[in-house]
């Protein structure tokens, strides 16, 4: 399997932006701009804040939109006395498809360790959600030339004891932290180096067949103008988009990367 046969996944991580009314307007714009052929070529997903999910679900269900949606985080627990947490059970009830796990902002501001990410990945699978496991190095690690070892260690931690039947559907997002929200996009070669190493490690942990099925996204200052070169890399199967996902015109350009 090559990146010609893996369906690219373009996911917009809205982070802590857009209230539920803005979310409805934004998804409507995307739905209006994207034609059926776009969805045939690329899987499109939005990852709004929790407070928007019900509104997005109502819109997607009501108009039978092909756009997928998911959450930006999940509790490792299914229910109980965990104030402020949102469980996989709740996300599944809202028919979420995806959930990001271990985004660098969760790791940095909420001290999420690889162990916590591993528990969250397993919680997602308990409820039929597909995790997008985020990995990637900071600037100090990159300057030391340790980006591959560092990122693969995060991958190992996040996937610990995850059975192949689940791992084969996971999405991995490689996001070098120094490229997030900075305008400093990794070169296509930088992205390929680590994404290729991630696929190699998946083959070691599971099998080549499984590794060939897994979609690996790049994330970090992706825009309409740079997406095509990144997507041309053999081990890059999509993008996890932050800032540019808040602009519907720009996100549509990213979805239509083959036209760039
Ligand atoms: O989840 C998305 C990433 O953090 C990338 O954000 P960015 O596109 O604003 O650099």
TrEMBL record:
InterPro entries associated with the record: Aldolase_TIM (IPR013785), TIM_sf (IPR035990), TrioseP_Isoase_bac/euk (IPR022896), Triosephosphate_isomerase (IPR000652), Triosephosphate_isomerase_AS (IPR020861)
SUPFAM superfamilies, alphabetized: Triosephosphate isomerase (TIM)
EC number(s) reported in the record: 5.3.1.1
Catalytic activity: D-glyceraldehyde 3-phosphate = dihydroxyacetone phosphate
GO biological process, one term: gluconeogenesis
Active-site residues, record numbering mapped to chain: 103 (electrophile), 175 (proton acceptor)
Binding site for substrate: 13-15, 181, 221, 242-243
MF terms in GO: triose-phosphate isomerase activity
Pfam family, one: TIM
Top-level EC class: isomerase
Keyword Cytoplasm: yes
Record's keyword annotation contains Isomerase: yes
Compartments, record wording: Cytoplasm
Pathway given in the UniProt record: Carbohydrate biosynthesis; gluconeogenesis; Carbohydrate degradation; glycolysis; D-glyceraldehyde 3-phosphate from glycerone phosphate: step 1/1
Record keywords, A-Z: Cytoplasm, Gluconeogenesis, Glycolysis, Isomerase
Cellular component annotations (GO), alphabetically ordered: cytosol
Superkingdom of the organism of origin: Bacteria
Function as written in the Swiss-Prot or TrEMBL entry: Involved in the gluconeogenesis. Catalyzes stereospecifically the conversion of dihydroxyacetone phosphate (DHAP) to D-glyceraldehyde-3-phosphate (G3P).
Subunit structure and binding partners: Homodimer.
HAMAP family, per the entry: TIM_B (MF_00147_B)
Protein family according to the UniProt entry: Belongs to the triosephosphate isomerase family.
Protein name: Triosephosphate isomerase
Organism: Streptomyces uncialis
Gene this protein is translated from: tpiA
